[in-house]
Amino acid sequence: MQASAAGGVEPQARAGFERRHRLVRWLQRGLRVLAFSAALLKAFHMSRAAHASPSPAADVVPQHAPEHARRARARDGGQTRAAEGTSTDRQLGVSGAAGSRAARRGPELASAVAHPAAASPARAAHTAVGVEADKQGVRLLAARLAEAFGGLSELLPPGTADALVLLAATALVVPILASLKLSPILGFLIAGCALGPNGLHLVRDVHTTEVLAELGVVFFLFEMGLELSIERLKALSRDAFGLGSTQFILTTLALAIGAEWAFRLPKAASLVIGASLALSSSAFVIQLLQERQELATRFGRASFGILLFQDIAVVPMLVLVPLLGTGGSGAALGTVLLTALLKAFAALSIIGGVGPIVLRRAYQGVTASKSQEAFVAITLLTVLSMSAFTKALGLSDTLGAFLAGVLLAESRYRYQIEADIAPFRGILFGLFFITIGYAIDLRHLAANWPQLCAMLVCLHVLKASLLVVLCKLGGLTSKASIRTGVLLSQAGEFAFVLFGLAQQHGVIDAQLAKLLLLCAALSMSATPFLADAGAHLAESWERRQRRLDADDSSNVLEPAHDSREGQVLVCGYGGVGTIVCDLLASMFVPYAACDIDPQVVAAAQERGLPVYFGDARRPDVLRAFGLLKSAKAVVIALDKPSECLRITKSLRRDYPDLPIFVKSTAASRRALLDVGAQSVVSGEMESALLIGAAVLKCTGKNEQEVISLIEEERSKVYAKSLAETLASVPVYGSKDKDKEEVVDVDIVWEQGKGPPEQPGAAPAAAAPAS
Fold first, then answer.
1. In the list 417, 438, 559, 576, which could disulfide-bond 196, CB 3.0-4.6 Å?
2. Whether residues 52 and 120 fall in one domain
3. Are residues 33 and 147 in the same domain?
4. Which domain holds residue 222?
5. CA–CA separation, 649 vs 624, rounded Å?
6. β-strand 633-636 against 660-664: which pairing, if any?
């Protein structure tokens, strides 16, 4: 039995050692070539630079020396560097030889693994020496890599080497994490930690990267503004100024008390720490919500509203921190705050009053020229000038970019602007996450890990607990409250600005500022894991609640716990119902949907959507919603026309003034209109879009904004339908090249028309009715 075990382990151990030895050998060869090339180029560059300016070293030939003497000194320097490189190569050769010996010792090590009792002390010593040699080889490889990149960075133009390093690291790390189904944000953080000043220091010009990263945040908030019109901001006012203000005040006080007790700080410093850590990361959270398509869910809207208020709250904090450092009086503090409020009011008035007129005329002139370059230029000018304007008034530059996006969200150019700005935002925003990774100092983390762990646990538990309670009191469901609280429990990017400002004005010392910055960076790095943890915790809570209510086995829908006036009731969550609900969520119109398919309901509730199990054909189920008397409209999107007709009759009899929108076929259109349907549309996809448009207009939404939204959704729907159709078509000759076959593809044109006729072609047959 032991022999068979040894026989199985020995080949595996030998193969592992051989693979590692081959990898080390190829790395050695590549790095030797790279280092030798860099050394030669650097020697040539230094020999040319010696003609222009003398070196500060003592052994450099003076400028007035003869030409041949300077050349001889440059040649000697090159030989010295070559000798140093040869010495390092010899060290690498020792490591490679150690790897070869380790490969030859494979059978012995495999036997030692299979028979640990029979392993002699000598073999154990040889194993330890081999492991230490491998570690030394890895360290030398890392040093040679840093030396090679350092030499290349001196030869290339300023910033070029940094750009190459960042792009290479991003292209390598992000796909690996994507294949592991992890957020790309973690890839940017890992790249920043490894390449920054606290890692290998391959990126030399850190300041330039940070400036570009700030532009990434500016473009990101501009894109967020494009998603929010004035009406959508009004819909978010309850979450922003209700939940957001309460969360910020209570969290600031709680964290300030904790900081004063833990660090023995004065009240001013504790207040700055509490207010800075009370902020959450808009960049991380909104990016994750967009990636997972959860921004339109209830907890997504609540999270966005809270983050919006926090961005506004940064403005007075930027004014207060310098005053706290100088010890200003209460009167001076009040004067500065009043001045800041007046500046904010003036900025909002100017942007809101003059901005739409100027932007409309500017874009009309640019689009008349039909120049794509000019259109991109005016968009970039709008973003940067608006952010510079608010920054000149002492406000946040990101606030100006956000307001610019809100103004352009009302224009007809919104979707073209969003497409043009996406490449800039993607690259620059990735740099922002890389700069966050710069702040992660692994050495400082190893030296202070108990204190940092305690700070992180206290921060996340305190913020999450307060937010869950406040969201529950604010009318959110338990599931949405848990997800919102856990998702917003991290620190934010503005903490870096506020801690740096506090250190600059003497509010906190440098050592504490470094510890707080590291805590904020680690907290932000945990955001993707917090999102997953919040979803699992909320789902566990939901399952527990379902087990408690398992005694009710009827299929009658229970009344919604978070129902409000003005909701839209959607009967049927199939193809049409899903599109209608997505359109309503995009415009922040509250809705509730029901469906009789439990799998459909479960999938929707996992995304946090207000979809419930219930049979819409039963009047008592519809009355269980408690919405019909105050509902803005009812959408009936069932498959069978007879069921739609029966539900319409029942609703019209009990609620004569209720708007009813029905999806049906052309044959039953007249009958539905006769029994009191507000609008009847036939066709599958197009009916969903038209019903959604009618419901949005019925709820008082702007007509131009509704048209723009429907056009965007139509493009998405037809692009998806076309992709599915093409994917189902087999490639001719892929299975049997000798067999000829003709593949017929039926495409249903949702408008009820066939494809446009080609010149000389026979007329197309009429498309069958849906």
1. 438
2. yes
3. yes
4. 206-265+287-450
5. 18
6. parallel
What type of residue is 709? L
Instruction: Give 117's pLDDT tier (boundaries 50, 70, 90).
Output: very low
Tell me, letter by letter, the H, E, C secondary structure of 45-56. HHHHHCCCCCCC
Give the CA diameter of the chain: 109
Q: What is the pLDDT of residue 435?
A: 81
Q: Exposed, middle or buried, 394 (CB in 10 Å: 0-12/13-18/19+)?
A: middle
562 alpha carbon, distance to own chain's centre: 29
Q: In the 8-state DSSP scheme, what is residue 566?
A: T
- pLDDT tens, 711-754? 887 777 777 766 665 565 444 444 443 433 333 333 333 333 44
Residues 78 and 147 in one domain: yes
Same domain, 431 and 572: no
- How far apart are alpha carbons 480 and 498 in whole angstroms? 30
Please indicate, yes or no, if residue 10 is contained in any of the structural domains: yes
* Distance (Å, whole) CA 712 – CA 702: 16
Pick the last residue of a domain from 450, 476, 495.
450
Does residue 758 sit within a domain?
Answer: no
Provide the number of structural domains found in the chain: 3
- Bridge partners, 633 (sequence order): 568
Q: Among 483-497, 579-593, 716-730, where is mean pLDDT lowest?
A: 716-730
Taking 50 as the threshold, does the pLDDT of residue 561 lie above it? no
CA angle at 365 for the pair 362 and 368, rounded to the nearest 5°: 145
Contact indicator for 326, 257 with CB cutoff of 8 Å: no
Of 206, 121, 198, 223, the closest CA to residue 166 belongs to 206
Give the three-class secondary structure for 618.
Answer: coil
Q: State the average pLDDT over residues 660-678.
A: 70
Percent of the chain with pLDDT over 90: 6
Pairing relationship of beta strands 591-595 and 660-664 according to DSSP bridges: unpaired
Q: What are the angstrom distances between the C-alpha of 347 and each of 219, 314, 351, 360, 365?
A: 19, 16, 6, 19, 25
Residues 318, 236 share a domain: yes
The single-letter DSSP state of residue 557 is P
| Residue 253: per-residue pLDDT | 93
108 and 244 assigned to the same domain: no
**677, 683, 688, 691 alpha-carbon torsion, rounded to 10°:** -30
Q: Which is nearest to 731 in space by CA: 741, 721, 718?
A: 741
Could you give the CA distance from residue 272 to residue 324 in angstroms, rounded to a whole number? Answer: 9
pLDDT at 360: 83
CA distance 324 to 315: 15
CA atoms within 13 A on the CB side of 467: 32
Task: Classify residue 631: in a domain, yes or no.
Answer: yes
CATH number for the domain that contains residue 419? 1.20.1530.20
Residues 6+ apart with CB under 8 A from 455: 515, 519
CATH number at residue 718: 3.40.50.720
- Look at the chain and count its residues: 770
pTM across the whole model: 0.53
Pair (134, 251) in one structural domain: no
- Check the CA dihedral 410-412-416-420 and report its sign: negative
> For 299-352, how does the pLDDT look when each residue is reduced to its tens digit (9 = 90+)?
888 888 898 888 778 767 877 787 776 665 556 666 766 776 777 777 778 887
Radius of gyration of the chain measured on its C-alpha atoms = 33
pLDDT exceeds cutoff 50 at 68: no
| Residue 303 counted as domain residue | yes
> Where among 723, 743, 761 does a domain terminate?
723
DSSP 206-258: HHHHHHHHHHHHHHHHHHHHHT--HHHHHHHHHIIIIIIHHHHHHHHHHHHHH
Return the DSSP state at 559: P
Residue 666: CB atoms within 10 A of its CB come to 14
pLDDT at residue 65 in the model: 43
Beta bridge pairs of residue 664? 682
Round to whole Å and give the CA distance between 385 and 712: 28
| Same domain, yes or no: 222 and 140 | no
More confident residue, 729 or 531: 531
